[in-house]
Amino acid sequence: MSKGLLIVVSGPSGAGKGTICKKLLKKNKDIQLSISATTRSPRTGEVDGVNYYFEDKEKFKAMIGNNEFLEYAEVYGNYYGTPRKNIEEKLEKGIDVLLEIDIQGALNVKNIYSDGVFIFVLPPSMEELKKRIIGRGTETQEAIKKRFNSAYKELDYAFKYDYGVINDEVDEAVKKVEAIIIAEKCKVSRKVDIIKQL
């Protein structure tokens, strides 16, 4: 049995990575989403073990000390991290795992798990990216400017990824991600055990 793929998706805010991941999971029931752990309180409707694993800071810090995360970060006073055990168990069973994560976290995962498939979602243009961020209607002018400036810096990291998918049309972008997954599964380096048994 082949190991599952760890599919890591990142990109600047407004590029549409979340939308692509939702559609990918809806179309491909055999891919499972990695669930992060956090020390923040659950929001209304959020369920422990479904949206996040909600932990207190003491337990989270103990998990850091025990090297139980592929990556973690402190954001606005709360910790967020990717538990290693669940992902590794699924991959060993041949289950593909999708990890939608920020760029810094993705690069940390790449240092530990270079066998993963790292996909950077790109906007069709910076003008379109700006339109999408403004179109959300949830950001102040200052926040829009900050996100837009961050996006310019984040684009430099695209060269550290295996693939770049331009999200000009969501369904097409999802098809490209599916094609990447198929190509990765056909790599000879992932078929060594099968070939040796022939």
Question: Can you give me a brief rundown of this structure?
Answer:
The chain is α/β, with parallel strands linked by helices and 198 residues long. 43% of the residues lie in helices and 20% in strands. A five-stranded parallel sheet has the order 2-7-1-8-9, with helices on both faces.
Descriptive report:
It is a single chain. Helix 1 crosses helix 7 and helix 5 runs antiparallel to helix 6. A hairpin with a 2-residue loop joins strand 5 and strand 6. The model has no long low-confidence stretch (mean pLDDT 92). 29% of the residues are buried. The protein is α/β, with parallel strands linked by helices and 198 residues long. The protein has a single domain, classed as P-loop containing nucleotide triphosphate hydrolases (Rossmann fold, 3-Layer(aba) Sandwich). It starts with 5 loop residues before the first strand and ends with a helix. It is 43% helix and 20% strand. Strands 2-7-1-8-9 form a five-stranded parallel sheet, sandwiched between helices. Strands 4-3-6-5 form a four-stranded mixed sheet. The longest helix has 16 residues.
SSE blueprint:
Elements: E1 6-10, H1 17-27, E2 31-33, E3 37-38, E4 53-54, H2 57-65, E5 69-75, E6 78-83, H3 84-92, E7 96-100, H4 103-112, E8 117-122, H5 126-135, H6 141-155, E9 163-166, H7 170-185, H8 192-197
Parallel strand pairs: 1-7, 1-8, 2-7, 3-4, 8-9
Antiparallel strand pairs: 3-6, 5-6
Helix pairs in contact: 1-7, 5-6
Which regions are unreliable across 5 or more consecutive residues at pLDDT < 50? Answer: none
Give me the CATH superfamily. P-loop containing nucleotide triphosphate hydrolases
CATH class placement: Alpha Beta
Overall 3D shape? globular
Write down the Rg. 18 Å
**CATH architectural arrangement:** 3-Layer(aba) Sandwich
